[in-house]
Amino acid sequence: MLHIILNGCFGRMGQEIQEEINQNKELTIVAGIDRTQQEADFPVYQTLADVTEAADVVIDFSHDNSVATLVDQCVQKKLAIVIATTGLSENTKQQIDKASQMVPIFYSANMSLGVNVLIEALQKITPALEEDFDIEIVEKHHNQKKDAPSGTALLLADSINAAAEEKKDYILGRSGQENARSKNEIGIHAVRGGTIPGEHAVLYAGKDEMIELKHTALSRRIFANGALKAGEFLKDKKPGLYSMSDLLK
Ligand SMILES: NC(=O)C1=CN([C@@H]2O[C@H](COP(=O)(O)OP(=O)(O)OC[C@H]3O[C@@H](n4cnc5c(N)ncnc54)[C@H](OP(=O)(O)O)[C@@H]3O)[C@@H](O)[C@H]2O)C=CC1
Ligand SMILES: O=C(O)C1=N[C@H](C(=O)O)C[C@H](O)C1
Description:
Blueprint: E1 2-7, H1 12-22, E2 27-33, E3 44-45, E4 57-60, H2 64-77, E5 80-83, H3 90-99, E6 104-107, H4 113-129, E7 134-141, H5 151-163, E8 169-172, E9 185-192, E10 199-206, E11 209-216, H6 221-234, E12 240-242, H7 244-247
Parallel strand pairs: 1-2, 1-4, 2-3, 4-5, 5-6, 6-12, 7-9, 8-9
Antiparallel strand pairs: 7-10, 10-11
Helix pairs in contact: 1-6, 2-3, 4-5
The structure holds NADPH dihydro-nicotinamide-adenine-dinucleotide phosphate and ligand LZUJQKHR.
C-alpha cells in the first residue's frame, strides 16, 4: 500500500489524482494540503509542517509559490516527493537540487508516457535535421493555465538542444516588423483556450518540406497515472533527483 500526501489537493490535477486513487486499492491519501480548506475524505492542512499522518510520498501539483517550502519540509520529515508543478523559478529549482541530496525527488514537467517517448523521437531526428530545418514548438492548453510557455514545451526544447550540435536560443512568441527568424533559434508559442488538457507540436520546417510530431493529451488521467507510478517508483529509493527516463528504463 502506498500512503500519499497530496499537495494542491483541490486543484484540477489534485481532483484527478483523487479519482484515480479511489479506483486503486493499493493507493491511499492520508492527508491533503491546499491553501483553501474544503471538505474531503482525508484530513486537509495548509502546510506539510502541520501534517501528523505518516506517509511514503508527497505528490505535488500546485504552484511555484508553494514548492520551495514544501521541499524544505520534506527534507525535515525525510519524505520522498514527486513534483509535477511547472513554471518553477530558478530559486525553486536550486532548492530541489539541494534537497535531492537528502531525500528522493522525482521531477517531470510531463508525467505522460507519450510525451516522454516523443522526447526520444526528437532526440533521434534532431541531429539529421538541425542543419537545414527550422524548429518551432506550439503548445495549446486550457484557459485556466497560469504559466506560459508550458513546462513541457521547455522540456521538449531542452531535449532538442541536448541532442543538437549547435545550441539554440529560445524565442518565446514573436512580434515586430524588423527581424526575420535566425537559424539558431527554437520558437515556442503558447495558445490558451477552453478546456484543452494539453497539446504539444514540434515542427521541423525545411525547404519545400515539413515534419511535425504532435502529442495530444485527451484527458488529465495520463498525468495522474504517471505521477502515481512515479510515487511507487520512489518507494525505497535513495536520495537523488529522478525523472521519467529513470522510470521508463
Ligand atoms: N507534470 C505534469 O505532468 C503536469 C503538471 N501540471 C502542473 O501542475 C500544476 C497544477 O496544475 P492544476 O492542477 O491544473 O492547477 P490548479 O490551479 O487547478 O491547482 C493547483 C492547486 O494548488 C493550489 N495552490 C496554489 N498555490 C498554492 C500555495 N502557495 N500553497 C498551497 N496550495 C496552492 C491551488 O489553490 P488555488 O485554487 O487557491 O490557487 C490549487 O488548489 C501546474 O503547474 C501545472 O502546469 C499539470 C498537469 C500535468
Ligand atoms: O497545466 C496543465 O494543464 C499542464 N501542464 C504541464 C505543462 O506545463 O507542461 C503538463 C501538461 O501539458 C498539462
